[in-house]
Amino acid sequence: MAYYPKSQIKTNLKTNGDEFILSSTKEKYIGFYYEVSNGDKFSGKTPESGPNILLLPIPADQEPESAEAEEQSVLISPPIIIINDYPNSPQQIQDLYLTMLLLFLHKKIII
């Protein structure tokens, strides 16, 4: 990273996760960042605060159009089944089979 005088760095800025992604992993970034005079933004409160990763604006195709669109995307995602124990009775096996079948059909119908 190039050297910038302190007068050309805005420090202690904060984002809640709806503005930037990390350039290294493309994951949404939540936390402090700083901005240098050329407009680049980096993770961390200051340039001295550890590994500073370049932040990129979230692409328009990844931004939810509205809260309603975000809510719909949550509603149509199929739930996850966690099986802690093996089914012990025929009724438990049948219930598990029906649940998995419904989830499969739900995924095929919605998507």
Mean pLDDT: 75
Order of adjacent strands in the largest pleated sheet? 1-3-4-5-2
Shape: elongated
**Structural class given helices, strands, pairing?**
alpha+beta
How much strand? 15-25%
How large is the count of helical segments? 2
Low-confidence stretches: none
Order of helices and strands: EEEEEHH
Distance between the ends: 44 Å
What percentage of residues falls in helices of 4 or more residues?
25-40%
Number of domains: 2
Profile the largest sheet.
5 strands, antiparallel
Summarize the structure.
The chain is α+β, with helices and mostly antiparallel strands. It has helices spanning 67-76, 90-110, and strands at 9-15, 20-22, 31-36, 41-43, 54-57.
Describe this entry's structure for a reader.
With 111 residues, this protein is an alpha+beta fold. The chain has 2 domains: 6-62, no CATH class; 67-110, no CATH class. Helices cover 28% and strands 21% of the residues. It has a 5-stranded antiparallel β-sheet, with no helix packed on it. The protein is elongated. The model has no long low-confidence stretch (mean pLDDT 75).
List keywords for this structure.
111 residues, alpha+beta, 5-stranded antiparallel beta sheet, 2 helices, 28% helix, elongated
Please give the structural blueprint.
Elements: E1 9-15, E2 20-22, E3 31-36, E4 41-43, E5 54-57, H1 67-76, H2 90-110
Antiparallel strand pairs: 1-3, 2-5, 3-4, 4-5
